[in-house]
Specification:
By secondary structure, the chain is α+β, with helices and mostly antiparallel strands. It folds into two domains: about 5-120, Rossmann fold, CATH 3.40.50; about 140-290, Sandwich (Tumour Suppressor Smad4). The chain has nine helices and 15 strands. The protein has helices at about 10-15, 15-30, 45-55, 70-80, 95-100, 105-115, 145-155, 160-170, 230-240, and strands at about 5-10, 35, 60-65, 85-90, 120-130, 135, 140, 180-185, 190-200, 220-230, 255-260, 260-265, 270, 275-280, 280-295. Strands 5, 6, 7, 8, 9, 10, 11, 12, 13, 14 and 15 form an eleven-stranded antiparallel sheet that branches. A hairpin with a 2-residue loop joins strand 8 (about 180-185) and strand 9. Helix 3 (about 45-55) runs parallel beside helix 4 (about 70-80) and helix 7 packs across helix 8 (about 160-170). The protein is globular, with a radius of gyration of 19 Å. The mean pLDDT is about 90.
């Protein structure tokens, strides 16, 4: 790997992304790699620069430095192509990197993996927009209470960091009601009311929440978790168990596996890999081996 495109999120991991990204850049260049800086003022700019570099074959691989959001961005650039993705994990949660067995907050170890050039093929989930554009995710898509909280928190400018998310939880809990869903799993239609719906290509999100604990990155299937209607006090007792993955033993929790998933609900905006993904309805399909990761 001699020509690398590098995208750094300087604010990842409480602003440690800049430091770890600069360290990775220094190490890569010291090892003789030609590094093209694809970073931009925002994600849209980085996507545009990255897509141009991949389309022009100006890079042999794309490397992202940051958290799950940067892996998400890198997946948009590399999924469905033969250009591999390298990850310098520098975020707060780093769920995707950790579950893939990649170094976390260790630029030297990450660079060593990247320069070794060995790759691992992993699945990615894809939706196609009305304009015909593909949008991908590699970790977990949230489309229930967690997505409602994310949407609320992202509408606030203050406070910053985890406190904004915690306040959004407090704001939503008193008014939250079970959400009517229509799910279509490999053609089978299911109607239900649920507190939580998550589609996992991988097992974890949100900084260690193992919401779909048995999901595998390379099994050609999506794990669809549904926490059916329960009283809010019971939901408060069940939800913390997501950190250990033991919530799946609750009688109101159902996990199904499918290759294609359609989610329908009114007023819900889904989040994938921690990023705003799009409003429901969404049609998702798993694409086996769509992403090559330098691992």
């Amino acid at each position: 790997m001699t020509r690398l495109g590098l995208v750094v999120n300087p604010t990842s991991g409480k602003n440690t992304g800049r430091r770890i990204g600069l360290e990775a850049l220094t190490l890569l260049r010291a090892a003789g790699a030609e590094v093209l800086d694809l970073s931009a003022a925002d994600a849209a700019g980085a996507l545009a620069r990255g897509r141009a570099a991949v389309a022009d074959r100006a890079v042999d691989a794309v490397v992202v430095a940051g958290g799950d959001g940067m892996v998400h961005l890198g997946t948009q650039l590399c999924a469905g192509t033969d250009v591999p993705l390298g990850v310098v994990a520098a975020g707060t949660g780093n769920d995707i990197a950790r579950e893939l067995g990649l170094p976390v907050r260790d630029a030297a170890a990450a660079v060593e993996r990247i320069l070794a050039g060995r790759t691992r093929a992993v699945d990615a989930a894809r939706t196609v927009t009305d304009a015909g554009d593909a949008r991908w995710f590699v970790g977990v898509l949230a489309a229930g209470f967690d997505a409602v909280v994310n949407e609320r928190a992202n509408g606030w400018r203050w406070p910053r960091g985890p406190m904004r998310y915690n306040l959004a939880i407090l704001r939503e809990l008193p008014v939250f009601r079970p959400i009517p869903y229509v799910l279509v799993l490999d053609g089978e239609r299911v109607e239900t009311e649920a507190m939580l719906v998550a589609v996992g290509n991988g097992p974890a999100y949100g900084g260690g929440m193992r919401v779909t604990p048995d999901a595998a990155f390379d099994d050609g299937l999506l794990d669809v978790l549904v926490l059916h209607r329960i009283p809010v006090p019971e939901f408060l007792r069940v939800f913390p168990r997501v950190f250990s993955g033991t919530h799946v033993t609750h009688p109101a929790v159902e996990v199904r596996r499918a290759r294609t998933v359609r989610l329908e609900a009114t007023g819900i905006v889904a989040y994938a890999d921690g990023e705003r993904f799009g409003p429901l309805p969404l049609d998702l399909e798993v694409v086996p081996g769509a992403l090559s990761v330098l691992a």
